[in-house]
Backbone:
């Protein structure tokens, strides 16, 4: 993650803003650049299709299936 001010990639997460809802689509993070001291916010989201592992095989599934306790 590069600083938008000086374009240095050395920074640290100072705070994570997230909802207590585990279904939240994105996390907001406040980062501090080690080079110039600039504080900036980033939004991070999951990318790709959800899947689950069954017998060491990656199986694509819809998101509803990921949160059920039933076995196929």
Residues:
């Amino acid at each position: 993650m590069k600083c938008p001010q000086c374009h240095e990639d050395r920074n640290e997460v100072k705070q994570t803003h997230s909802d207590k809802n585990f279904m939240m689509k994105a996390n907001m993070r406040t980062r501090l650049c080690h080079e110039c001291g600039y504080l900036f916010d980033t939004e991070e989201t999951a990318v790709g299709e959800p899947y689950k592992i069954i017998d060491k095989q990656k199986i694509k599934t819809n998101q509803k299936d990921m949160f059920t306790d039933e076995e196929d």
Observations:
- The chain has a mean pLDDT of 77.
